[in-house]
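[Meeting: bench + compute handoff]

Bench side (C.D.) handed over the final construct sequence. Compute side (W.E.) agreed to return the predicted structure before the next meeting so the bench team could plan truncations. Sequence as handed over:
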Amino acid sequence: MLKHAWVLLGTAMLAGCATGPDTVAAAPGALKDVIAVEVRNTVGQDELLPAPPERIHPGTGALGQALVDAREHQYRLSAVRKIGPLFAAIDDVDVRGQLQQGVALGVRQGLGIDAVHVKTTPVLLEADELAQLRTALKPGTALLDVTSEYELSLNALRVEMESRAKLYRAGSDRPVHANRYFYQSAPVAGGTSAYLLWADNGGERYRAVVAEGAGEIARMMALDLAGTAAPVPIRSMTFEMRNGASRAKPVTGVVLLEQNGRVILRADSGGLYSFAK
């Protein structure tokens, strides 16, 4: 239980320290000469977290956000105590490693290069470390700073993942490209508790959606980084979040890819989303 408590606290602090733009569209040709990418992939948690009942961003500065993070942390900690048996079934799932593979694949496919080195860490990059990595960039290289989180939805029916990425080139302290990539699994269904369904048969369903989620993060990142090489948008669609959070707003955007029972869309408000149909 102590392990869960420290992981939860670390994640709440990480969320509160996130800064910078969520979406920056790369200028035409800004990525075409990239031949190598150094990736720092931060996954601050060791296991699945339950979603807090509501996410409120009060806009009152660091103190206000810290209070919200503390309240979310307390909820997560109490929820962990209730769903402990689920952890026993999925404790060995290496989500951090699967997200590392997904990010590497997304960058390779999106930019059409092989020289991608990924270092995954549970600790968010400090500002001075990020500055040093940017300063060390050489012509033709780039730095991708990625932060990922994953959780069980409020209604416990879905697993959700999100990666936020910022890409830097030499000579600039601002990202030339930034975006967020969100995955939501199909719901579990059955005649018993959702927690038991996720834990059933050694966590088989959870293991499957983690693999799918990492693959969808890779697919969205590849589509995004490909830029003009990405598929022509198919049509506009709107998806309800369906995760039990009353404040969750529908997502509307243009469909980029539709296959294997899933839809990837570029949201009008920014970011790429992967939903089950």
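W.E. noted at the follow-up: The helical segments are 2-17, 61-82, 84-90, 95-111, 127-135, 194-226. C.D. will use this when planning the next construct.
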